[in-house]
Amino acid sequence: MFLKQLDTLGFKSFAERIRVDFVPGVTAVVGPNGSGKSNITDAIRWVLGEQSAKSLRGSKMEDIIFQGSDSRKPLNMAEVTLTLDNTDHKLPVDYHEVSVTRRVYRSGESEFLLNKQQCRLKDITDLFIDSGLGREAFSIISQGKVEEILSSKSDDRRIIFEEAAGVLKYKNRKKQAEYK
Ligand code: ATP
Ligand code: MG
């Protein structure tokens, strides 16, 4: 499984439709301070289901919608699509390619799509859990994260190992079964 493409429209500083192609090998994103490098990883975390505006460096979810600039009006919607190559079927679905889309409107409405079909946040979370790319996963290491892991409580650190070992899925299912 690997990231192929990221498409954004109206997400944070990306007012226009932007496409990032991740070619095999290492992709480095360079640019001056404030040019939107971190907004790219924010877009990836958001489309994978991040629900905390704070961890996306805002105070409310609306903050991720392009808020206008000197030359452009604010937009009413943000949309991000992440396309993954799934020829190794790491993601437990039949598709060779998986695309995840998330949209949010200023009115507060939001939607998720999996290969262009509407779905729930839970479907996305379930699909990516234990794949190493989930919202809570450590495939995205942000500034300060390494230090946070090293200084975390042993219970919190245990979650990291459980995700890496692939048992988080079963623990979550058990918890859900107990609620029913
Ligand atoms: P650094 O090198 O300092 O880490 P960076 O390239 O990672 O910078 P980002 O943090 O990705 O930069 O981008 C910050 C920019 O995104 C700021 O200029 C900010 O005004 C802009 N921005 C954030 N949210 C929005 C929004 N909703 N609408 C328009 N612009 C936004
Ligand atoms: Mg940054």
TrEMBL record:
- Recorded source organism is Gracilibacillus oryzae
Localization (cell):
Cytoplasm
**Domain description:** Contains large globular domains required for ATP hydrolysis at each terminus and a third globular domain forming a flexible hinge near the middle of the molecule. These domains are separated by coiled-coil structures.
Write down what this protein is called.
Chromosome partition protein Smc
Assembly with partners or alone: Homodimer.
Q: Which residues does the record give as ATP binding sites?
A: 32-39
The family annotation for this protein states: Belongs to the SMC family.
| Biological function | Required for chromosome condensation and partitioning.
